From TrEMBL:
Name of the gene: moaC
Extent of Basic residues compositional bias: 168-178
Subunit relationships: Homohexamer; trimer of dimers.
Enzyme class, broadest EC rank: lyase
Source species: Natrialba swarupiae
Entry's family note: Belongs to the MoaC family.
Active-site residues annotated for this sequence: 145
Domain Molybdopterin cofactor biosynthesis C (MoaC) intervals: 34-173
EC number(s) reported in the record: 4.6.1.17
Protein name (database record): Probable cyclic pyranopterin monophosphate synthase
Domain of life where this protein originates: Archaea
Length: 178
């Protein structure tokens, strides 16, 4: 039979409470909650995220030449990235729905990879880095979906394909002028 530590030893019987201290997405009891940003002032905010998809060089050339059977890979990925930015609050449970004021996407085609940069701007009470990350990951997933037929090997696997290095490159916050 295991012995429970006494309160005199300073133990907390619920480890979730200790872990939750200092976290804004949990209550004192350790329950998940959305952060209340109602009292925060509006700020102009911008976040830039980047990531890349590794592809076969022949696939990159097919994308450059617009010879992929499903259509224009980069145009479709751009639309997917923008849609993902606009719907982030629906897929990440604790994200607020924020007013997106601008989304920029930029694709850089290398020899064996495509780098996607997504910049998101908003004026509001909370940042937009999750939106930028969602734009990058979805945009890269759309690229993969568009080229999967030519990326598969003879066994139907993707040995040369991978999404990598997804990260927030920069975030900015400027107090809005009234």
């Amino acid at each position: 039979m295991s012995e429970e530590p006494s309160s005199a030893e300073g133990s907390n019987p619920d480890p979730r409470t200790d872990a939750a201290e200092g976290l804004t997405h949990t209550t004192d009891e350790g329950d998940v909650q959305m952060v209340d940003v109602g009292d925060k002032p509006d700020s102009e905010r911008r976040a830039v995220a980047v990531g890349e998809i590794r592809l076969r060089p022949s696939t990159i050339e097919a994308i450059r030449a617009d010879e992929v059977g499903k259509g224009d890979v980069l145009a479709t990925a751009r639309i997917g990235a923008i849609q993902a930015v606009k719907h982030t609050w629906e897929t990440i449970p604790m994200c607020h729905q924020i007013p997106i004021t601008n989304v920029d996407t930029d694709f850089d085609l290398g020899e064996d990879r495509i780098e996607l940069t997504v910049a998101v701007e908003t004026t509001g009470k909370t940042g937009c880095e999750m939106e930028a990350l969602e734009g990058v990951t979805t945009g890269l997933n759309v690229v993969w979906d568009m080229v999967k037929a030519v990326e598969k090997d003879d066994d139907g696997q993707y040995p040369d394909t991978g999404i990598e290095n997804v990260r927030v490159r920069r975030k900015e916050k400027h107090r809005s002028s009234d």
